[in-house]
Amino acid sequence: MEKLKIISNSEEETLNIGIKLGSLLKIGNTVVLTGDLGSGKTKLTEGILTYYKLEEEISSPTFTIVNEYIKDDIKIFHFDVYRLEDSSEFYAIGGDEYFEKGICIIEWGELIQDALPQEYLHIKFERDNNNENSRIINIISYGNKYDCLLNNFK
Hints:
The protein is of the alpha/beta class. 25% of the residues lie in helices and 32% in strands.
């Protein structure tokens, strides 16, 4: 398990962190985003999609649960599981079948913890009480491939 703490002082910095992360992601990678409403989860996702030149297509999957984006042969699945009761609803929509088909980005992933793959990248967003525009972003890797990914991110 590797850990990295980043301070983002603006939405633009959070977007750029997402772009950098997007450059390292591969098919079969899962990124779990947790944090309060408005803490930066969707902005980071926008950055990942920007890396793939898909930034014009981003929309929140709050009501659809998952949005699918395709660039060349890469599929990106953006989940928002906030409205799910528990992981059984995630399994009911076949959510676990997406993990190996593309890059999965899961907002509010802590709500389906037991449905997540054994290895994933967890990104926790916290507000900085001293600066309303700053976010403390803690990135934690679970599994060897994510340890390597995080080491390449540093």
